[in-house]
Design goal:
The protein has 243 residues and is mainly α. It has one domain. The protein contains 9 helices and no strands. Helix 1 packs antiparallel against helix 4. Keywords: Membrane, Transmembrane, Transmembrane helix. This is DUF4386 family protein.
């Protein structure tokens, strides 16, 4: 069995890179906004489209459906990436990679149910910081729950790591706030005169999504690695005793 230090490094890499794959939200949102919105947006560039969407309170079914489809595809990709990276660390205890991946994806896809609460919004998504909170706390927490159920079936019954995983999510969100505020309060104004509207929009999204999900992934891995390692270690000790 690998050492705690080696396990922690591998686990933190897996969770950090897995959550960082949510950066795919940016190109996917731009693609869906450019090609799959109603005809009234024809002729507008992407920054103009998002400016209208963010300022409008009018509900549009096509926009809502488009938004949900783009999120469904995003969570499918991100869940697959995260599950694969984690599988590389836990492959000895995961007998069915397909089920492991499916449960991880399911944890994220269940966020879409939360979006239904905000069905009256023009974009069909949660406003302001609520959508990333749904992804971070809701999706992240549900991923841990689904994975715990799988690992429990594999004999790893100690679920203490799930609590530390959720604590890592909360810590990551809090840790990202200074970086996000630094951009909003100081850097953004200086960039408005230097960047094109498209480059500015991309930078604004990156300034939030990159620190937010990177730090969530970092702290979930960091906090949950030791209790998960101890849970696995206990299984190994029990197997050695049986021998």
């Amino acid at each position: 069995m690998k050492t705690l230090k080696d396990f922690r490094i591998e686990w933190v890499k897996a969770t950090t890179l897995g959550f960082m794959s949510l950066l795919l939200m940016i190109p996917m949102s731009f693609i869906f906004a450019r090609f799959f919105l109603p005809p009234r947006f024809d002729g507008l560039n992407i920054p103009e489209i998002f400016k209208i969407l963010s300022s409008s309170s009018e509900f549009n079914l096509q926009i809502y459906i488009t938004n949900q489809i783009s999120h469904f595809i995003l969570y499918l990709i991100v869940g697959t990436i995260l599950a694969h990276l984690q599988y590389q660390v836990l492959k000895k205890y995961i007998s069915n990679k397909l089920v492991w991946t499916g449960l991880t994806i399911l944890g994220l896809e269940l966020i879409l149910l939360g979006d239904l609460i905000y069905v009256g919004l023009s974009t069909g998504g949660a406003p302001g910081p609520l959508e990333p909170l749904l992804i971070g706390i809701g999706g992240g927490g549900l991923i841990a729950l689904m994975q715990f159920l799988y690992l429990r079936s594999a004999g790893i019954k100690n679920g203490k790591w799930v609590g530390y995983w959720i604590l890592g999510i909360v810590t990551g969100i809090i840790a990202s706030i200074p970086f996000i505020m630094l951009y909003e309060m100081i850097i953004s104004e200086k960039l408005k005169s230097l960047l094109s509207p498209m480059a500015l929009l991309f930078t604004e999204w990156m300034s939030f999504i990159l620190p937010y999900f990177t730090l969530i992934g970092l702290f979930t891995g960091l906090f949950s690695s030791k209790p998960l390692y101890r849970a696995i270690e206990q299984i190994q000790l029990n197997e050695d005793k049986d021998i």
